[in-house]
Amino acid sequence: MAETTPTTLGDLAFEVRSKNAGPFWVTMELFLRDAEGYRVAADESFLDEGTIARLYGVDAADVQMFRIPSLNVVKISFPRPVAQASLRDRDIHSGQHHVPLALLPLPSSALTPSPTPR
């Protein structure tokens, strides 16, 4: 079976998840498969506070990012758009917030062609 070239941030990860960080914050975590995936995800020219602000409609100044190279993990926190369990809360556990992050297309510089079988 031929290996496919990763095209989204989720393709580089074992897991991309989101969860509550109290009633007013969301935390997302990218657990990257290897150091190469971490290199791409931790690259501030690709994934930074501004990228998260655009994806989630929050102020970039409110986004907190934690890069943990020893674990190949990037953790991101930002204020929830509405308080947990409030009238307009559509995801009480913040369990679906990770989807736009996982579907973020990789920059062309990160795409490497699959090895050619011999």
Tell me about this structure:
The relative contact order is 0.27. The longest helix is centred in the first third of the chain and has 8 residues, at 35-42. The chain has a 4-stranded antiparallel β-sheet. It has one domain (9-103). It is built from 3 helices and 4 strands; from the N terminus they run ββααββα. The two termini are 14 Å apart. The radius of gyration is 15 Å and the shape is elongated. Residues 113-117 have low confidence and may be disordered. It is of the alpha+beta class.
Q: What is the topological layout?
A:
Blueprint: E1 13-20, E2 25-32, H1 35-42, H2 49-56, E3 64-68, E4 73-79, H3 98-102
Antiparallel strand pairs: 1-2, 2-4, 3-4
Main sheet: strand order: 1-2-4-3
Radius of gyration: 15 Å
Give a quick account of the main beta sheet: strands, pairing sense, barrel closure.
Answer: 4 strands, antiparallel
Low-confidence stretches: 113-117
Separate helix tally:
3
Protein structure class: alpha+beta
